[in-house]
Amino acid sequence: MSALYLDDLTPGDAWxxxxxxxxxxxxxxxxxxxxxxxMHIDPQAAAIGRFxxxxxxxxxxxxxVMRDFIANNPFGDTPLLGIGxxxxxxxxxxRPGDTLIARRxxxxxxxxxxxxxxxxxxxxxxxxxxxxxxxxxxxxxxxxPTRPM
Length: 149
Known about the structure:
Elements: E1 14-16, E2 20-21, H1 24-34, H2 38-41, H3 43-48, H4 58-72, E3 81-90, E4 99-111, E5 118-128, E6 134-145
Antiparallel strand pairs: 1-4, 2-4, 3-6, 4-5, 5-6
Domain MaoC-like: 18-126
Pfam families: MaoC_dehydratas (PF01575)
Protein name: MaoC family dehydratase
């Protein structure tokens, strides 16, 4: 896909990523390295804990969603720069065996007044599981180039 630029984007533009399978081995591996809490790494302890079983770290879910974004490459060859995340919410536990779908929607597009070759894109991401229940949401801000002259 060729590059998309700030000028090509409109609030309301939306797309859905590929299905994301959540595997138990990956849940445990990620958590052992980055979020080593019993509910993420120990099936026996997790079974008697408040979630009644093993759940993925929210950071793991966010990383899976980021990998999906990069793999699906919705903006083509455009050089992007993430500059912030707001309102990151983990709304429902994600469990091994779940399949997630990320939907992204452009909320705002703004050209910079001080750097007219750049602008910002505000994007809302919602992630649902196989039942259609929302498990994560966030709003992120990206720096985006305008079309070269």
